[in-house]
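Task: fold both queries, return tokens.
Query 1:
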Amino acid sequence: MVLVWLGSATIAWAADLEVGGGGYPDLDDALAAAASGDRILMNTGVYPGAWRIEQPDRLTIEAKPGASVRLSASVAAVEPDGLLHAVGIDLTLRDLELDGNSRPGLRVSGGGRLTLHRVDLHSASRSAGGGGVAVDGVGTSLVVAGGELHDNASGADGGAVRVGDGASATLLGVRLAANTSGASGGALWCDGACDVSDSRFLANAAGGAGGAVFVASGASFGIDRAWVCGNEAQQQGGGLAFSQVTGWSGSHLVSFGNLAHQQGGGIYLDGQSSGTLENADFVGDAADQQGEAVYANGASGAMALYNILFTDLSSQGLYGPAVAVDSYSSDVTGAFTGNASETGGHSAAPDYVSYVDTVDCEANDLHLAVGSPQLGWGAAGHLPYLGALGEACTPVAEVPGDGIDQDCDGLDDCFFDGDGDGYGDSGAAVVHGVGLACIGPQEASVGGDCDDADPLVSPAGQEVPLDGVDGDCDGTELCYADTDDDGFGAGDPDFPSATLDCSGAGAAPVDGDCEPGDGAAYPGAPEQCANGIDDDCDGEIDTDAVPVTWYRDNDGDGHGDPADTVEDCAAPQSYVASGDDCDDLDPDRYPGAPELCDGRDQDCDEEIDEGLVTGVVYADADGDGYGDPDASAEGCVGQGYVDDASDCDDGDGGVHPGALEICDGLDDDCDGQLLECDLGRGGIAEDEPRSGGVAGCACAQGGASGGWLLLGLAGLAARRRQQGSLTRPGEPRSVEK
């Protein structure tokens, strides 16, 4: 059983099924063999195809550690299924690249659950909604944790993700960039229940409303700790747009450089929408019409904003029936219009850590610098203002390099990078980053450097074979493969050894092995005679070889006389390699020969008649297979003895149990009865009954006919004595025991 920690859930897999690398040849074969709870591990490679997965009910597909795996949509990836469709199952995809190849991406339906963990989904295109992922059906859900959804497109709603009515989606720590939709929701279109946190929406575009996100009528929506930057809508809401949505909420939102070609450069609410936003920054947003930062249409809806910064706006930053409590606006004269108002406003400008007056989503750090006047704002009943990217939190253990402030000090911890190669020493003490970024001197967001004093050594370093240095920090050195463990390798030095000196199993520091499958052949090995192998790898066979001893085989049984030998590389005629014959003049005697009951040692083990069945045996003098009960001995069957004692005349081979009874005055079949002719009564004497009712003989009274009959029978008996017993068909004949 394999365990993994993800978030707060512990997952147990029933079995691991490997694809590639000696496992299943492709994903289809592994899916056909998978059972509920199994995990499919993918080796490095590109796997083209299109998959509709309806069973098992719970399954994980992920890349093996260190593997680079790309699932690429083939020509079979068409709507509605696309690259992969999970139907009514709980499917997790982890550490994979999913290439839509300009074809429909993923789909989950039928009440199933699709989890994307550290997945890179890109280049998918769907004419219907949800170019990257379509989430359809009541009870169906999508969870995206980490990873990226970028460069996906939809001809309708939701360039990256479309969540249908009754479905749900959770986005945690996701980067959504350069996605486009022909209608609304450049990155995300939500008609169900959607929750977004610790995520970035960058440079997405919509042909309708909601350059980054569009929330439809009746949906529920929450957004927390999000960066919405550089998105564009041809209609309303350059960043976020809401249509008939009530009660949505958001916090710690940065809306930076978004553009709406109608109203609401940052956020747009129609007349039936309302919501609450706290601790947010609107920086450099723009709209061709009203509300550069926020537009609230207002017929029945309204928006409440707490602890808000409006920076670098030209006019009409907040428009509509909205109230900003404890806020700042750089545009004092036109910031609040269309029934918008301000309570507890501040005039001091914020001091950001790093702000460049351009729409460069990756070049600005909008954390409030130490000493910024906005730190400590606190609208009644709302969080103290620490800036949109900061928060009041419960301190927990910091995770270095993840861009999140877990211990609530406003900074992320970083790995110490002593050699400046971009990788830190995981075992060294951590250092504080610049805000939540590890961009300062000797800071790295990634650990794993196995030699932090050598800039050429890191997880991204180049492995140099046979140099005794783990250049890429994978725990191995590249050596020659030594498949026969003779200390010499062959081929290119590309075998990964766990020992840096190439002394581990299957590895060698030198090459030159001319017979990689023979452990007795290697440079310097003793040359052997007549084996057809260059044992010492000098390019010649049998040179300087030690001669082989051959043994004469006089009887041709394959075993030679140990006393009659010659020395040569090749076997002379009538000589063999084995010299273990105990009698080289008898072909029936040699090691392994079957032992006979004859008083001799057939198998050359210095034992006689061993292994044979012994006991009381009886002499069979006439060789008819039946023994004399009066001539017994202790021994084994054979050499004139049998294990039968039923012969009534062991001197006559024609007399034994089962023999043919004839009219000869003898008990031929040893049943205790004689066949006699009673001539005194002048009648015919019949033989005792035979099978089938056939009479054996008849004797006539007196006369020539009777005499001739007896004479003929006497001749028959004589011939039988010469030829052996007369037997009926199916009776045993005399055999040699």
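Query 1 returned. Query 2:
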Amino acid sequence: MLSNRLRIKAALAAPVPLTARRAEATLQISEGGALEALEIHLKATHPQPSALKITLKAPWGEAAALHDHGAALPSAPLRASDTLLSGFKGKDPAGEWRIIAEEDTASEGARVEALNLMMTVLSNNKVLLRGDLLSKQGRLTEAMSTIKALEAKLYCLEACPDLGLSSCHARDCDGAARTCQEGAARPDGAACLLGGELGRCVGGACCQPKRCAALGRRCGVIEDGCGGWLDCAAETTRPCACAEDDTCLRCGGVECPALPGFVAACNAQARCEYAPAQPQPWQASLVWIWAPPGLFAMGAPRKEKKADRRETPLHDVLISEGYFINKHEVSVEVYAACVAEGACAPAEIKGDDGEGWGLNTAAVRPGHPQNGLSWSAAAQVCGWLGGRLPSEAEWAYAAKGSAHRRFPWGDTPEPQCEGGLAIFKEDKAKQGCGGGGTWPIGGRARGASAMGAEDMAGGLWEWTQDCRHDRYLQAPRDGSAWEADCRGRARMIRGGAFNRGAAELRSAHRASRAPDRADADIGVRCAR
């Protein structure tokens, strides 16, 4: 049976005189026994046959010279019965067999053109091995060429290695000539190391970029001194929005945090307000306002006109971490974009149709707030915008700020349609201030809240994260959503609507709806 492996390799023995060349073939026999027959066929084409020496080494260490320098190549097969190989017979053939061919090149121009060796080993009446040790593809001249190439490659690896990140130049190595010199410069921008710090190659030299932190910058984009730019808002753990002088923007004494993709400015209420940096058509009303950390009284004072027990007890809430909240209710354009991306289901009226007002759509009422949203639909669109539903406390804080206000715009005047304070049911004949329902977003800056948010009174009711609790007993004091025992319970809504009276526009007023209701008078304002 055939050996399980045949390996042929060429190597330069060391030390070896310059006039000697050597090639070696290794054959592995895995089965043992007693060697019964060994036959070797040797054939070579060479201008000077006497230049060849071929040796066979058996696994047990014994060696036999099949051909020596100065002799003619044997024309007949060499067998174990011959005197030369007589010592091999009866030995266990298992193990590694090696044939070594050496060429004496003292005679200039001598070349081995072909050297073929066929070896057959029989044991226990089985052919253990039959294989070509060296064929035309294993000519010694080719082996020597491979050896020279390996020597050249080894020189370059050992004496002229690539310097990697420690240099901005490649190494130019000629292994055959044994030369090593600095090569071409690596491309600009390639990584490098300078003083143990990561840098960039510029003009063949390693450049250490500037760092925003070292420059005291937490906003804006600056040159890094190495042909690149630094986004300082992305480099810091507390990025801020940038003012025109490249310092952190402050509005009303409050530093404005960065909001990726949005540009900050101070609004009329001296609050940080953010508009899209590169707005898409559907983002026309997508503006965020920063509600900074603060303490406020949630609920209604006992003597406030039209207050009820659901708004009690009045209690302090500490907003320890600021948040962003929409300046406007989510528009039909924003919602349509969410539907188009498959993140939102189409809005539909499942409940009160607002006395015939029906569903707002981008096609029928462009620019209007989106109504017909269930609690889950409202949460979906907020998630798609990178946000969430606000807690009831966050909604109240954005509506009135740190100091209590009866209405988002202040304690006075009373709600009225004239002058653009709010869209509500001013009297029986004036649902939606006479328009019958919602109005386009914007244009009611006079009714803006302490934070600058519009339509927090009137327009549409707005979902919050909290489930229904009829009073503030045991309500969270940290501004988080109150969701204890929410299963199957209604969710809180705030702000009043186009079909509600003035009393329900108060900042402290509370109401609730079943979460699956999708009425014509309810929408959403998102937080993040």
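Both queries returned. Flag for query 2: The CA atoms of residues 339 and 394 lie 27 Å apart.
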